Amino acid sequence: MSSEDGPSKKVSRKPRYSRFTQQELPACKPILTPALVIGILMCLGIIFIPIGLLALSASENVVEVVDRYDDVCIPSTDQKVGFIKDPATNKTCIRTFTIPKKMRKPVYVYYQLDNFYQNHRRYVKSRSDRQLWNPKAESSTTPCDPEGQTGDGKPIVPCGLIAWSLFNDTYMLSKNDAALQINKKDIAWRSDRTHKFGSNIYPKNFQNGTLIGGGKLDESIPLSQQEDLMVWMRTSALPTFRKLYGRIETDLEANEKITVTIQNNYNTYSFNGKKKLVISTATWIGGKNDFIGKMYMAVGGTSIVLGVIFSLLYVFKPRPLGDPSYLSWNKSPTLD
Amino acid sequence: MMKGSHQQRPLLNPSPRTPGKEELPYTPVNASIDASIPVSSKLYSQSQIEMSVDFVRSPSSSSYSIKEVSFREGNDVIVNPVIRYDSSGSNPVRHGSRGASSGGFGSSYKEIKDDDARLVYVNDPLRTNEKRFRFAGNSIRTSKYSFLTFLPRNLFEQFHRIAYIYFLVIAILNQLPQLAVFGRGASILPLALVLFVTAVKDAYEDFRRHRSDRIENNRVASVLVNGEFGDKKWKDICVGEVVKISGNQTLPCDMVLLSTSDATGVSYVQTTNLDGESNLKTRYAKQETQAKASLWGEIGGMLIKCEKPNRNIYGFQANMEIDGKSISLGPSNIILRGCELKNTDWVIGVVVYAGKETKAMLNNAGAPSKRSRLEKHMNKEIIILSLFLVALCTVVSISHGVWLRQHRKELYLMQFYRKYDYSEPEVEKYEYYGWGMEIFFVFLMSVIVFQVMIPISLYISVELVRIGQAYFMIRDDRMFDKSTNSRFQCRALNINEDLGQIKYVFSDKTGTLTENKMEFQCASIGGVDYDNGKAIDTETGYSAQVDGMVLRPKMMVKIDQDLLHLSKMKHTDEGKHLCDFLVALAACNTIVPLTVETSDPAVKLIEYQGESPDEQALVYAAASYGFMLVERSSGHIVIDIQGERQRFNVLGLHEFDSDRKRMSVIIGCPDQTVKVFVKGADTTMFQVIDKSLNLNMVKATESHLHAYSSKGLRTLVIGMREMSTSEFEQWQSSYDSASTALMGRANLLRKVASNVENNLRLLGASGIEDKLQQGVPEAIESLRTAGIKVWVLTGDKQETAISIGYSSKLLTSQMTQIVINNKSDSCRKSLDDALQLYKKLSDVSNSNDSGNGAGTNQLALIIDGTSLVYILETELEEKLFELSSKCTAVLCCRVAPLQKAGIVALIKNRTDDMTLAIGDGANDVSMIQKADVGIGISGQEGRQAVMASDFSMGQFRFLVPLLLIHGHWNYQRISYMILYNFYRNVVLVFVLFWYALFTGFTLTTAITDWSSVLYTVIYTSLPTIVVGVLDKDLGRSTLLKYPQLYGAGQRGESYNGNLFWFTILDTLWQSIAVFFIPLIAYWDSTVGISALGDLWILAVVILVNVHLAMDVIRWYTITHIAVWGSILATFICVMVIDALPFLPGYWAFFMIAKTKLFWVCLLGIVVSGLVPRFVVKVFVQHFKPDDIQIARVAEKFGYLQGDAETEMNPIFDLPQRTATT
Predict the structure, then answer these.
(1) Interchain pair B485, A127: CB under 8 A
(2) Contact present, B364 and B26 (Cβ < 8 Å)
(3) What is the ipTM of this complex?
(4) For ATP, which residues are the binding ones (chain B) (predicted)?
(5) C-alpha to C-alpha distances, A136 to A130, A149, B1145, nearest whole angstrom
C-alpha cells in the first residue's frame, strides 16, 4: 500500500548490482564454426605428420644390437637353477656379434630382463629410503622385510628385496681382441648420487644370509658411489625393462665383431626370466621404437582426412549457422 | 484474529520434513491442536480419537478428552473432502488448515490436568520453579557446540553423511598392514581435509550464534523484584516473574498479559519476527487482572495453569485462578517472545514460558531438505559405477589368483616375490596367507586403489556449486521485489537443478497471481448496483474533524457519486438502508484504526490495521463514504458518521470460520437497539437470509453478485437484524457460558453463532477487486510457451476464477472450455464427454491442418472442488488425469487447501514430470510441500507458505527468470558437472586398472599415492566447480526470447542414460590413449616406475582439463585461471612430490621431463585422446544440432535481436540498464 512512501526506515535489501552477481561478466564464446573445425583438423595434421616423420627417422637411425644369453650361457637344461646357484661353477660365457651399422659414440650398454616384475607390489615396497641417506636411520628397516635384518637382528644396509636382488652379471667387451672400455661412471642419476644415497653410508650385513638374491656390494665403498645399485634401485615400470650398464665412449664401425665375456651370475632361471645384452645408440626419441612416429603419422593423417571430409560436407551440404528458423519449434509447429 | 472470507490459517506446525534442530517434546497438548482442525477428513478423525485417548489416559479426567474430540465427528457442516494422498498419515496436522479455530477461541478447551500443566504462581518465581518442575530459564542457546563438545559432536554429525563413511571405511581399510596400498598420510588426507573444512565452517557459524546468543541474553528488561520494577538481564528472567514492557520493546519471553496501559486491557503487538506479518495484532489483558494493575507489588497467590510448551504460535490455553475464581485464558491473552509491543505505552505480564521453551524458539526449524531428481538419477549411475568398481576389482583379484597359481612353484625364492622368510633360523611363510586370502586382500586393495570410481568428491562439489547457484539466484536483482523489499530466498539448497525440469506449475490465485491488496470496487445495496466509482484525490476525499484535527483515511476508494449522495439522506428508507450497510462495513470486523502523523500537523491519516485485506478494503470504503471507524477498544468502537462521533458497544463477536464462512458482531447502537451484523460468503449467507422479506431485492442482489464475480471481483454478502431485549439476554447468557466453557468452547460458540445468525435482513453485497500482480499474464504466457502447464487452484467461485483466468491469459478465447461442476454421478459423464470432445477436436485438427494446428485444439479444463472431491475418491481419478494432461490450462475453483495437495498428487503419482507449486498463504502449505518444488510468495498473507517452501520470492512473475533462466542454467550446469565428474574419475581408475594388469595384478601404482589422492582434490576439482557455477550455455535474453529452450531440461537432454554410457565409452578410449601410448613408447626402455607414473598423471590431468576446456561455452577470466591454473598446479605438485628425497621417486619428474619423448608423448596422448570426442561433437553439431546449439550460434552471430547483456523483457519492471558492452 503506502509503506513505500516517505523514506522508510528499512534499508532496501535490493542486491547490489555488479556484473558478477548478475552473471553478466564479459566472456569469450567460442563456437565451432566449419572454418574453425577444418582449421583445427588441418593444423593437427600439419603439426603431427612432421613430428611423426622426425620420430620415425630418429628411430630408424638408432642402431641396436640385442643378444639374449640366458638360454645359451648355461650348460645343461635340467639343472639351470642348481647351476646358477652354485657359487663354485664357472659362469663365464663368451658371446660374439657383429655391429650392423656404424654406431656413433656414446654407445650404451644395457642389460634387459624380461618377465621380471620389478613393479610387483611386495617388491616395490621392500626398501627403506631413509636408511639410504640418513646414517641415523640405519635400523629403520621395517618396510624391508623379509630382508630387513640378519638372523641375529642386525640391520642390513641397504635393506629390502630390491637391493637383495641386485643384478650381478658382468660384461667385458672386446673389439678385435682389444678390450673395449665400458665406462660405468655416471650411469646413475646425479640426484641419486648427491642426495638419495649417502656418501657416509656403507653397505653392512649385505647378502650375509643363507639366501643370496643377487650381487654383493663392496663394503668399503659408500652407497653414493655404488652406481649399479642406484640404477637397480630405480625400479622399472614394466615387467620387461632395460637398465644402463655402462657407456662405450668410442664409435663402433659397421661389421666390427664384438666379443662379450659375460659372467652369468644372475638367477633368472627360477622364474623363467630372460636376460639380454643390449648395445644401442640413443636419439631424442630414446631407443629403437617407431611407435611414436607411427602414432603421430596416424593421428595426423586421420585429422587431415577428417578435415577434408568435413570440408566436402561443408561444400556439398552446407548448413546455415544459427538460423533461428531451424529451431525445432519453428520447424514443426506442434510443440507438444 | 479474525480472517477475511478466503483466508484460513493453519497452525504453524513445521512439517515432518523440517525437523527441528532438537527433538521437541511431544506433549499431549498436540491433541488439542489436532482437534482444532475441523477440515481434516474423517479418516483422520478416527486416528485422532485414538491419539487423544492415548494422551489423556490418566486417572483424572479421561472422559473429557474423548468427548472433547468427538465433537468433530458430530459436526455436520464439514464439507471438506477426504484425500488420501498421504497413506502413511503420519502427521495429519501438517496438511490441516485452520478452521473454526481462528485465534481467540480456537482451541477447544479442556481441563488441563495437573500432570500435563505447568503451574505458574504469579510473582512467585521461587515457588513456580520448585525442583520438581524444571522450567527452562530465559537464557537461550542456539549454538550447537561448546568449546569442549565441539570436536566429538561435530565429527558425529559429519559422519551422518554416507560419503564420509565411505571415506572412513577406505581409510581404515588402508590402515591394515596387509592392505596398506597408500601411505597413511595420503589415505587419510581427503577425509581429513573435508572434515576440517566442514568443521571450520561449522565452528564459524557456531561462533556467530554464540555471539548473537550472548547479545540476546544480555538484553535488559524491567522485572518486578520485591515490589519494585528493576532492570534484569534477559537470561536471568524466570518463569513466574512479572515483567513490564514499554512500547516498541521486544518481548523477552512468552508472557500472559496482566494489565496494559489501556484501561480496557488492550495492547497491540507486531509479530514480524515470529511469522512475518507486519500488521498489528490485538492482545487483551483480562479485566480481572487489569483492575489490579496498581497493586502488583503486594499481590500474589494467583495461579496460572497452562499447557506445556509447544510450537503452535496461534494457540494457547490456560486457566487462571484469581481470588478463588477460575477464568480461562486464550491465545489473545499471551504475548510471545520476539514480538514487539506497539501503540501501547506499557504492559505488565507474567512469564509463562521462557528461553528455549518459548514458542518462538520452538519454531526455529531448519530448512526443508529434498532430493533433486537429477541427484536421484545420479545415484542410479553411481550404483552402476560401483558395479564397475566391483567388476574391475574382481577381474584384478581373480587374475591375481591365476597368476599366483601359474607361478606357484617359483614363489619361494623369486627375487621379486619371496613367499618365505629366510632371515630367521626357522624358515616361515612371509606375508602369505594362502591364495584364497591373497585374492581377497587383492580385492580389498583394489577397492582402495580404485576408490575414486565412486565420485565422493562429486557430492561435495555439487554442494559447492549449488551454493554458488543459490548465491546468484539470491543476488539476481531481477528477482528482487521492491514493494515487499524481499529478495529471492533459497531455503532448500539441494534442488536447484529441479527448477530446470518443471513440467507442471500449480499456482494459488489470491496473493500469488493477484496482489491480495483488496480494493473496494462496487456494491449492491438494497438491490441497486452502484459501480460507477470514480477515483477522487485525497484532498477532496472525506475527512473528519476531531479535536481540531483533520482525520483522513489513508487510502481512498473510488466513490460512486449517487451512493455518496444517497448516504447523506438518512431520512429516506433507502438512506437508512444504506446507513445500515455502511455501519455494517465499518463495524463488522476486527480492524484497528491507527492514526499516523503527516507532514501537516493539522492533518492525521487514519490507517486500518487488520489481518484481513478484505476487511481493510471494506472499512476504507465505509470511511470514504463518511463512516469512519476512528477508535476501537475491547468493548466499543467509535465511528465518525459524517462528522458525528458515535459510540457503538461491541457486545459480542463471532469469528469467521471456514464452515460457517461468515462472521458476525452484536452491536449495541447509540439508539439503544441491539443489532447483529453478519457478513460472509454468498453461499452460506443466503441460507440465513430471510428471503421472504424482500424477494425482489434478494433476486437482484444475486444477479449483481453473479455479475461481480464474472468481473473477477471477490464478493461478500452483508446482512443484519435487530435483536429484541429478551433475545439479546438469551444470547448473552449462552454466549457467556459458551465463552467461559472449559471444554468444547469452539463448538459451543459456533452453535451460539448459528443461533443468532438467522432470519437476517439482506443489506447488500460488496465487490472487492483483487488486482492481478504485475506481469502475471506475460509470465503465464512465457511459461506456457516453455511447455510448462500452468494449473490455477483457487478457493474462489467459478465465475471469478474464469474471469481471472482470462485476465491472466491462462485462458484464451481460442480455447475450448470444458467445465465440470456437477455433483456425483454426472461427473463421470462429463469426463467421458470431455474426453470424447478432445478426441474429436484432435481428429479434426489432424485431418484439417496438421501444419498450423497450434491453438485450435487447445482445451481448458475448469473443475470445481465438489466434483474434485467425488472424482478423487473414485476410480475416475485416472480419467481426470488423462483429461487434464491433455489440457493446456486447468483451473480448479472452490478447492479446499487439502485438495490442492490432492491435485498435485494426482499428477505427481502418475508421471515422472516435475511439479512446482507456488502460493503465498497458509492454505497453500500442503501443496507446496507435496510438489517437487515448492515456492512461497512472501506477500501479504504471512509466512507459513514461505516457511514450508523450498524457495521464496516476492512476485509470481519472478517464476519466469527463476525457471527459464536460473533453472535452465542450474540444470545445464549440474548435469554437465555430474557427467564430467564421472568421466574424470573413471578415466583415472581405468588408467590405474590397465597398469594393474602389468604388475602381476598386485596393484602397484605408478602414480604416487599422493598424486592419486590430490587428483580429485587439487588437480581437477576447481575447474569443474568454476564451470559448474559460471558457465552459461545461453544468455538471458535468448532464454527469455525463446522460452521453448526450457524444453531441453524437461526432456532431460543434458543428463540421461545414453549420455552416461556415451561418456563411459569416451572414457574408455581416453584411458586407453593415456595408458597405452606411453606404455608402448617406453616398452623395452629404462624408464622407472615413478617417471612413467608422473607422465601418466600429468597426461590424465591435462587430458581431463582440456576435455573440459573443449566443452566450456563461455570463457571468463576465472575459467581460464581455473583450467590452466589446475594444469600448472599439477605440474607444481608433481615437482614438489618428486623433490622429496625420502620418496622413491626422487627427481624422477625432472629426469623424464628432460627428454623430448616425454613431451611428445603428452601431446600425442592429449590429441589422440580427444580427437574422437571432438569429431563426434562436430558431426553432431553439424547434422543434428539441438535447439540450444542453434540458439547459441545464433546468439553468437547476432541473429537474435538484442544484446545478451542488456536484454529486457516486459515482465521486468526495472529501469533499463545502459549497455556495458
Answers:
(1) no
(2) no
(3) 0.94
(4) 508-510, 615, 656, 679, 714, 794-796, 894, 900, 923-924
(5) 9, 16, 22
